[in-house]
What we know:
Cytosolic phospholipase A2 catalytic domain, 13 helices, alpha/beta, lipid metabolism
Amino acid sequence: MIIEGTIGTKAALVVEGGAMRGIFAAGVLDYFLDINHRPFDFCIGVSAGSTNLAAWLANQHGRSHRVITDYSCRKQFIDLPRFIRGGHWLDIDWLWDVTIDEIPIDGWELEQQMIPLYVVTTNVDNGEPHYIQATEQNLNQLLKASCAVPLAYRDYPQLDGYEMTDGGVADSIPVIKAYEMGARDITVVLSRPKGYRKASPKSTWLIRKLLRDKPQLAQAMIERADSYNRAIDFIYNPPEDCSIKVITPPDDFGVGRVTTDSRKLQMGYEQGIKAAKHLTA
């Protein structure tokens, strides 16, 4: 869906996260690579959206597909019984160590691009979003912090002296931030079908209990639905001086946050390619 408006001087690409749902954006961005589609002045990514964007900027076609359909499906990464025993449900440490060793993102190549990447993280102490520009030096730790789903991953990566966690907690779809940064032509890649709105958590008491030593983070998680839905409202009702193009999965998108079914993941990837072809036709 394309929402027309007056296009400004800056164009931005915003990519939502969503763990395994990121396979859709992987398809979109791989197709963008295929046709050298880069009409953007800057991009902002959250969680899996930030890793997708980093691979895209580094010209590493297929990397995100491989991470999601292979490494992220392994027992070493997703293990609910381990979580019940007190470990990580999603072991970000293992995932980062093995992928950095075997298929690292080319930080040097990323820095050669004229399109800066801003990655969203959430400050654990105050629950506020940080928008940090990726560099070759901070890339791995920055992406790890943005992907560190609280509770499912029990640690908080350190970044610039702060404990950080999943950027999606504070700003799941940073389209308003892109506008504030001067973008008036914004392309947004979502990981949920059109019409999705996030429901508020029912057990707020449980979130506060589990994060009793991080009360501001708990509050940010409780308010996440409100922040998410404000972004959706902005996307479909932008200011008059802003044009927004929205790329969403189709209604039959079958990938959830922890889906490991190879058929569903491959279909989600191909749906991303198809959506990107439609946008750029």
